[in-house]
Amino acid sequence: MFLRKRVKVSTIAVLVSAATFLNGCSSSSTDSTGGGGGGGGGSAVSFSGTLSSRLGSLARDFELQTGTASSVSCSTAENPPTVLSGTVGGDGTFSVDLSSVTGSALTCSVLDSGNDVLGTFLYENPNEKSFGGGSQKVDTVAFSESKNVGSVSVSGGQITVDATSVGVSTTGASVTAAEGFDPTGLWSIGAVDFTLPPGYIGPCAPGTPGCHGPQSGESIYIKRVVGKKFTPDSTCQASADAGTFAAGGTCNGTTGTDDAFVLSIWMSEDSFKACGDGTKGALGFDEAQAKAYGHIDFSGDSSLLHQAFAYSSSYTDNASVVHNIIDGWKDDTATSSWPLMNCFSVSSGGQTAYKCLDGAGHYSLSLGGGCTDSSGSPVQPDDWSHVNWGASSNCTNSPVTFDGKTLNSNSCTVPLHPVSVANYFDLRWNLGSFQCR
């Protein structure tokens, strides 16, 4: 999408590649053999691998549905983007020729036949950390030589690749604060003026019914924060790995010379400052936490407060009643509009069930249910009228013992109507049959 930076005199249109295009807010990465920058020429460079299963789940209109991988598409973070793709074979193999975009930042996704995204490739680097303390994961990297990611699978809309074993760098070349693009400021979202890559959509027009994404004209405030790369000592790192490093702690280690960056994205500059002291915004954590979890030293930054966000402790409603706020967002007087049962997961004999108590000594057990395809992936038909519940359905009822109690399990293997142009479900996913219980 276009992000137009608002200035006092005029509006400047600046393209930031994003999906809808916020991927480009991070710098591009290069692999272990070369630097960044668009290229092309030289020896052939390809991105290849094998999908262990061609089936994947996707969300459409708030329904989880199953699609079959048809192609792998890679797009550059340019205006306009260059799109390269390769088909997925019946055995799950794929290969995309990247020779013309060697060294360019790329985001690659697996698409179904309707160009819906089943999953985006994420490159996981255990040697670098995210601010949550886990391994760094990025979806935009560059290749200067051919890479085969081996056997990978689509799970939860992602295809995770071990960046270290494949030999892909997730950090890229060092960029100084002066060299890097500083997007700090108020931006408005606008439509792109080029053809979007497959699997991407633009912002909705204002007031569009059913819009589930950003609308044209919406504003966001971006704040870039600059620090230095930091390497924690073993004591600090162990505490971060265990998730026990808390605010106010001490993280010893070594501060490097390379600049490191964080982007903080808000609805407006006023809301950003309001969560600080009203004049400056806040990081949301202190310097020691940034060192421990994010491996960044912000001690040289003075552009914002190095502390947790400042939450309101109370508010007054329309009836002039004061309410206390807990944990920054919970109203201490809030109640549910309906009775809530005490429900939780329990395990027995390798099975998991959902147990609900009514407070009077009674409880219910449920083993769950839903529909799956032949590979066990969840599926939700978009139109149940396409399902044949006639005599050809194969339904069984069998007892299941759980924690000494006998439950009934109902399972049906349900065929779909024959494939035809009028049958959207079969035509699009061609599942053949699926199982519900």
In short:
This protein is mostly beta strands. The protein is 7% helix and 39% strand.
Structure description:
The chain is mainly beta and 437 residues long. It folds into 3 domains: 31-166, no CATH class; 224-332, no CATH class; 369-436, no CATH class. 7% of the residues lie in helices and 39% in strands. The protein is built from 5 helices and 26 strands. It has helices at residues 163-166, 234-241, 269-274, 287-294, 424-429; strands spanning 2-6, 11-15, 46-51, 55-60, 63-76, 83-87, 93-97, 106-112, 117-129, 135-138, 147-152, 158-162, 185-190, 219-232, 253-266, 296-297, 314-316, 322-326, 330-331, 342-348, 351-357, 363-366, 371-372, 394-402, 405-415, 433-436. The strands form 6 sheets. Strands 4, 5, 6, 8, 9, 10 and 12 form a 7-stranded mixed beta sheet that branches. A hairpin with a 5-residue loop joins strand 17 and strand 18. The chain is globular and about 70 Å long. Residues 1-41, 58-65 and 417-433 have low confidence and may be disordered.
Overall 3D shape: globular
Count the E strands: 26
Return the average pLDDT rounded to an integer: 77
Distance between the termini: 43 Å
Provide keyphrases for this structure.
about 425 residues; mainly beta; 3 domains; about 5% helix; globular; disordered N terminus
Helix-strand blueprint:
Layout lengths: L1 E5 L4 E5 L30 E6 L3 E6 L2 E14 L6 E5 L5 E5 L8 E7 L4 E13 L5 E4 L8 E6 L5 E5 H4 L18 E6 L28 E14 L1 H8 L11 E14 L2 H6 L12 H8 L1 E2 L16 E3 L5 E5 L3 E2 L10 E7 L2 E7 L5 E4 L4 E2 L21 E9 L2 E11 L8 H6 L3 E4 L1
Parallel strand pairs: 3-11, 9-12
Antiparallel strand pairs: 1-2, 1-13, 3-7, 4-5, 5-6, 5-8, 8-9, 9-10, 13-14, 14-15, 14-16, 17-18, 18-19, 20-21, 21-22, 23-26, 24-25, 25-26
